[in-house]
Structure formats: C-alpha cells, structure tokens
Amino acid sequence: xxxxxxxxxxxxxxxxxxxxxxxxxxxxxxxxxxxxxxxxxxxxxxxxxxxxxxxxxxxxxxxxxxxxxxxxxxxxxxxxxxxxxxxxxxxxxxxxxxxxxxxxxxxxxxxxxxxxxxxxxxxxxxxxxxxxxxxxxxxxxxxxxxxxxxxxxxxxxxxxxxxxxxxxxxxxxxxxxxxxxxxxxxxxxxxxxxxxxxxxxxxxxxxxxxxxxxxxxxxxxxxxxxx
Length: 227
Prior knowledge:
Protein name: Si:ch1073-184j22.2
CATH architecture of the domain at 26-173: Alpha-Beta Complex
Helix content: 25-40%
Family: Belongs to the protein-tyrosine phosphatase family. Non-receptor class dual specificity subfamily.
Strand order of the largest sheet: 2-3-6-4-5
Largest sheet: 5 strands, mixed
Pfam family, one: DSPc
Number of helices: 6
Mean pLDDT: 77
Structural class: alpha/beta
Low-confidence stretches: 1-22, 184-201, 212-226
GO molecular function, one term: MAP kinase tyrosine/serine/threonine phosphatase activity
C-alpha cells in the first residue's frame, strides 16, 4: 500500500507525535545499494551500481544519468553519461533539468537507462517521476506510486516535491497531490518531528503533502550535503 506523504523540515526538539513513523523496509542498506527497475528499460540506484560494468551490461544500460556534483562518471564501453550537477537540498533547482533528462531518457529507446544519485532516494527518483509524467502520461500521484513500489526507500525532499508539483501543473494544468497549509493535518504545529518525512493515511487514500517552509541551512553551503 502506498501511504500519503507529509514533508517536514524542522529540526527543533519536539514532543512525540501522535502518528507513528513506520520503519524503513527491512534490509534498507541492501535496498540503497540495489538496482531498482521502474520500467523494463528504466532503473534507479545509488552511486555504487553504475560502477559495476558487468551489471550495466547485464541490464542493457546504455545511458547513465548521474544526479550528483562529484560522484565519478564511469567509463563503460557503449555507455553514455549525463551529469545533473545538483545536491540534495530543498532550494536546489532540480526542476531546471526535468525536461532535459526526460528527453534523454525518452530518446534512449535502443537501450536501458540508469538514473542515480548518492543513495537513490531523492534526486534520482524525482527525475524519474518527472520523466514518467512527461512521456508516460502519469500524473504525479501515479508516478510517485510507481517509483515507490519499485524502490520503497525513496525520500524526496520537500523542495523537489514543490518543483514536481509545478511541473505537473505545467504539463496537466492541475495537481493530483493535495497540498495542505503548514500545520494542517494530523499533526499540530507544536508536534512536528525531527524526522524529515512522515507517512500518514488520508481518509480517502489520497497522497497529501503538508507544506512547510523550504530553506537552505544558512550555515551550510549548497554543496555541503550528499554529493
């Protein structure tokens, strides 16, 4: 079952929440290292999988999209590499790359494509969701469901969610993910969690995002997190 998502970015000490955060799936370290198949020719992963030339050959990968600032571009025979130089911070302009990456994936019809970032949890899933909306006719809700089912460890940051919502509105003229104002929903404003993501059931089963302030930490440069 795909659960609605509420995005939290606050770090202050808070009271225990009323809604429990479900544990990540068993074997999370294995999931982070694994190659996750989204479509017959589209894969997601962290930074380790693309270095495995035998695995790339086995899966028919001919295009690697590297959504990191500094992780190496592998030199496998017959494999093109495209770098998306964005770090995993909410204020980073990942949306500027949605069309370019989607078009490259769509154009790579003769082979498979691997989209990866450092852990395969935020940047690369967001890029894949944008592709599914642009060329597979998926809504944002459907794209999220498909990617989450193939890679349960994804945790897209709130800024990238905002950019995906804007992209969906541009493509379809509407949003299929409901966004509530800050402090709305099952958690009160005095009960926000330190965890960056919280899953809750909506009464109708819809995917719901609670909007919170999006900012880069003032003490941390934009290149300071996972690269």
